[in-house]
């Protein structure tokens, strides 16, 4: 077990410019989900746009179920969002669960319903185009020229698409549970350990490709993925057209979300992934035994609409958009040294 491969993988844009304080207040971290589709306008479900502050997603889902008299399992949401933040996200509830049909005013001190729309189906996990972030970093001592230079590099090249430290539990605690018998754990705990094991292997592969410089380049044997999409295709030999698309951040190389069998890549890429998997044999064995299949995830994260401004002398406000499943910490760690890891994603 090599926890540093998960918790402290290598950076690509140089060391942190300075230290910074994040999430001094929940309003310092604002995230808004982008669905990528419009409510259908009819159907047995209500699609609710909810603003929450300093509350986690599962708690809001339970409160919505309680207020409407339905089962928590009947409440749908696309992704988990940070507790210590202000987050605008979508939930779905069976319309019959609220006899009045009036969703206005539903909520409390920690959340409120902003909009309600009739919709055809329960909102499934992952049903997002992406997330938009507004993040305030305090105590930033870096010069404006340094910040602009680093941000320009991030705009042009993106950042490694690492899983954030929150995937591994506080201080990496879930990594220490990989060798345990999962049958003795409750289903949510089992899910946390499997997630940590998968994220560990992925971060280790990505870290190795950061170190050899191929995290942003297509190699023979790669599986390339379309930016912001789940579909991928094999690359037998990257030609000039593929290289140009990769340079424009339209497509990216991928790494393994480990499971049963052999990764579907080839050549030197497969050799690298199998070598890393051998170094994390317990994690890979656990994932295979759990019946998970091999999947792929982009190695690179394009940071869209990236802007910034300085406020109050030592405060910097960042705005950017990320595809679903990506972590804002992957961007922030290329800028600042900070101990904040309270983040969820999808």
Description:
26% of the residues lie in helices and 26% in strands. With 346 residues, the chain is of the alpha+beta class. Among the domains are: 4-11 and 158-301, TruD, insertion domain (Pseudouridine synthase); 37-119, Pseudouridine synthase. The strands form 4 sheets. Strands 2, 3, 4, 5, 6, 7, 8, 15 and 16 form a 9-stranded mixed beta sheet that branches. Helix 4 packs across helix 6 (267-279) and helix 4 (187-211) crosses helix 7. The chain is globular. The relative contact order is 0.19.
Broad shape: globular
| Oligomer category | single chain
Q: What is the name of the CATH class of the domain at 4-11 and 158-301?
A: Alpha Beta
Estimate the mean pLDDT confidence.
90
Poorly predicted runs: none
What structural category do the secondary elements indicate? alpha+beta
Report strand %: 25-35%
Q: Compute the gyration radius: what is it? A: 21 Å
| Number of helical stretches of at least 4 residues | 8
The largest sheet is:
9 strands, mixed
> What is the terminal separation in angstroms?
27 Å
- According to CATH, the fold-level topology of the domain at 4-11 and 158-301 is Pseudouridine synthase
Judging by the overall fold, what is the CATH architecture of the domain at 4-11 and 158-301? 2-Layer Sandwich
What is the ordering of alpha helices and beta strands? HEEEEHEEEEHEHEEHEHHEEEEHE
Question: Portion of residues in helices?
Answer: 25-40%
What's the CATH superfamily of the domain at 4-11 and 158-301, by name?
TruD, insertion domain
How many beta-strand elements?
17
């Amino acid at each position: 077990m090599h926890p540093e491969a998960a918790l402290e993988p290598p950076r690509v844009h140089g060391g942190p410019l300075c230290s910074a304080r994040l999430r001094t207040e929940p309003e310092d971290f604002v995230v808004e989900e982008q669905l990528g589709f419009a409510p259908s306008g009819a159907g047995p479900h209500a699609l609710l746009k909810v603003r929450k502050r300093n509350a986690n997603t599962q708690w809001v889902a339970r409160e919505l179920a309680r207020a409407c008299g339905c089962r928590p399992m009947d409440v749908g949401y696309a992704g988990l969002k940070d507790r210590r933040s202000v987050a605008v996200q979508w939930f779905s509830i069976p319309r019959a669960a609220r006899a009045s049909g009036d969703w206005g005013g539903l909520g409390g001190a920690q959340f409120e319903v902003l909009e309600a729309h009739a919709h055809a189906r329960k909102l499934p996990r992952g049903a997002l185009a992406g997330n938009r972030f507004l993040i305030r970093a305090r105590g930033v001592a870096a010069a404006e020229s340094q910040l602009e230079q680093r941000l320009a590099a991030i705009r042009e090249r993106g950042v490694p698409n690492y899983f954030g430290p929150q995937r591994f539990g506080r201080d990496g605690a879930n990594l220490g549970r990989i060798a345990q018998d999962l049958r003795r754990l409750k289903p949510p705990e089992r899910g946390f350990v499997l997630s940590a094991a998968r994220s560990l292997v992925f971060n280790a592969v990505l870290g190795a490709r950061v170190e050899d410089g191929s995290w942003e380049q297509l190699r023979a044997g790669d599986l390339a993925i379309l930016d912001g999409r789940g579909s991928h295709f094999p690359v037998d030999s990257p030609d000039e057209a593929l290289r140009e698309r990769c340079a424009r951040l339209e497509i990216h190389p991928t790494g393994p979300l480990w499971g049963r069998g052999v990764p579907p890549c080839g050549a030197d890429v497969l050799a690298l992934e199998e070598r890393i998997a051998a170094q994390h044999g317990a994690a890979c064995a656990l994932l295979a035994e759990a019946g998970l299949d091999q999947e792929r995830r982009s190695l690179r994260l394009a940071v869209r609409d990236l802007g910034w401004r300085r406020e109050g002398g030592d405060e910097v406000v960042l705005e950017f958009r990320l595809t679903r499943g990506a972590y804002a910490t992957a961007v922030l760690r290329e800028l600042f040294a900070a101990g904040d890891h309270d983040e969820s994603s999808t």
